[in-house]
Amino acid sequence: MQRPQLLQHLKMDPPNNGRQGRSASIDEAVAAIGDGDRVYISPICGVPTTMVQALDDQRDRWSKLQLVTDYLVDPLPTFDHPGEPFRLTSLQPTGAVAAMREAGVLSTISASYSQYVSLLRPGAPQAIDVAIVQVSPPGPEGRFSLGVGVGVSLELLRVAPLVIAEVNPQMPYTFGAGEIERNEIDLLVDVDHPLVELDVPQPNETAQIIGANAAAEIGDGAVLQFGIGAIPESILGALTERKDLGLHGGMVGDTVIDLVESGALTGATKNIDQGLMVVTGVLGTRRSFDWAHRNPQIYTVPSSYSHGAVALARIENFVAINSALAVASDGSINAESAGERVLSGPGGQPDFAFGASISPSGLSIIALPSTAAGGTLSRLVPQLPAGASVTVPRYLVDTVVTEHGVARLGGLPLEDRPAALAAIAQPEYQKALLL
Q: Is 195 helix (H, G, I), strand (E, B) or coil?
């Protein structure tokens, strides 16, 4: 299968950084990491499990080691022994980091996905010393591929002082900017382990209704971005009757396969990157990994292109689909915290909400259940509580969807927004929004 034509908008030439691409044992790779180093761990489905386990097994080498990572599906092996020498900096904390939080060795940074590289590159406040990533074996062209985890990992391996890569035969080879040369890596460690998988639960009846309500806002030819979770997945599942949908966003996964196989997602009418699904990687099960392997429709890109304002502003009919924990009556979105308790980070949601606002005919959809805690709490509230995060400001919110309907807030005066949101709230909580 031929490598697809490079996107003209991306500079693909690898830097001349003098790396050797030397094969090394796990022990040699571990020994190259210095005491006190800040070590970036490739996240989500690209976690280099064998190397992280080796860090834990040889923990006595260091008095302090700062691990830095993004969204994690499962706890890292080092979390089994929270505390020194390991500390964790998380850019998007999930439940997987609970042990580190409870041990008091977790730091969180509130930043959107497009900001990560600027925070972690040399000279930045949180500069890393080491990047540990995972790659496929080299393809016929001699290149390795970052496979399921490109995005920020690609940009950081270009600038990190030391780059260690697991070479895993279970990693799919994906085309695009994530195809890298041997001389972009310092140490190559042969491993063979299953990739981390994310199996999104089947949507319940409420999620399915929300999915249908949101899907009604999305027309043929829309270029989609979607977040992680049952509700964004339920929206995708309700789009199988559309024509020529496109994709430009964070990840492809199992539900995207269904959308492609239904004939709804073709990318045929995208005004840029026509026919390509432009993503930072793959998030799903082994089914997704096998489907993505050398699939010419999938094109992996760095975060500067997937989430950057310059690229998003060029995409016509861009539709960002995300969820939230709470929506205030003025439209402000909290997708990060319950009170002062941090549950997640901004991730790509602010990037894509802004991108939709500057895209020609763009649209941002926030979809969520109207209640939480078994119906005892409303997610649509008069105002966000003290200490809660504002992930997306009110001026970037277009459309809010619940199981009770759709509130189109874009261009709506602030004094009219409470009534619009009350109309899609659980009936017993509507009055509070109107006071």
A: coil
- Give me the CATH number covering residue 355: 3.40.1080.20
In this structure, the number of other CB atoms found within 10 A of the CB of residue 181 comes to: 16
Strands (E), 292-415: 298-300, 318-322, 326-328, 333-334, 337-338, 341-342, 363-367, 371-372, 377-378, 380-381, 399-402, 405-408
Residue 63 has pLDDT above 60, yes or no: yes
Domain that holds residue 343: 205-434
What does the angle CA 86 – CA 92 – CA 94 come to, to the nearest 5 degrees?
80
Look at the pTM and tell me if it is higher than 0.85: yes
Q: Are residues 303 and 352 in the same domain?
A: yes
**Which residue type, as a one-letter code, is found at position 434?**
L
347-394 pLDDT tens trace = 999 999 999 999 999 999 999 999 999 999 999 999 998 888 899 999
Helical ranges in 348-390 per DSSP H: 349-358
Residue 202, helix vs strand vs coil = coil
**272 has which bridge partners?**
none
40-57: string of b/e by CB count within 10 Å (b at 16+)? bbbbbbbbbbbbbbbbee
273-331 pLDDT per residue, tens: 999 999 999 999 999 999 999 999 999 999 999 999 999 999 999 999 999 999 999 99
Position 329 in a domain? yes
What kind and span of H or E run contains 203?
Answer: none
**Contact by Cβ (8 Å): 186, 154:** no
